[in-house]
Amino acid sequence: MNTDQADPDELAALRAAFDVDDGGQSALGWEKVRAFEAEHGIVLPEPYRTFVAEMTDGSYSGPPESGLLSLAELPDDWGDDGQDRDLSRPFPLTESWLWEDDPRPSEEIDPILDQVFDHGSIVLGTDGCAMNWHLIVTGPHRGHIWLITDVGAGPFGAEFGFTTAEPGFAGWVRHWAANKPWYDIA
């Protein structure tokens, strides 16, 4: 998984999976991508960066179930307007965490939860019921996809033991395109 350079094969797979053939009209464009990155103090991981700049910025077709959100969008059920989100601060997790079963007191858990939801990730979309897919943009898991729910969070990809798919945005999309219904548990 190369998060710094777009792989032509991955870009071709993304084009095919989303059937993007509108001459780039639904894409954000490089100027707006760079402006978003400058505003948030990040560089988006590849191939997602090229995907939103050249192919499409959001899609009604999945993944996830409700479609891919545009770069700056949050799900309708997000709650507040996302003012506390800081994409430049590292995403705090490197392994799955089921906070619903965590025995620590809420005074210890709540600050970490705030970071899980608001630091270092963009929301790709939702599968409903507070199940949101995030692309990690800063921190050790940069470029990985995480499913963050109301009870816990876990990384997507075979190396993490929760699916048979490759990690990263391209692996996530390829898995969806080949396996509808698409989310498997290994």
From TrEMBL:
InterPro entries in the record: Knr4/Smi1-like_dom, Knr4/Smi1-like_sf
A Pfam family annotated for this UniProt entry: SMI1_KNR4
Lineage: superkingdom: Bacteria
Segments forming domain Knr4/Smi1-like: 31-148
Protein name as catalogued: SMI1/KNR4 family protein
Lineage: Bacteria, Bacillati, Actinomycetota, Actinomycetes, Kitasatosporales
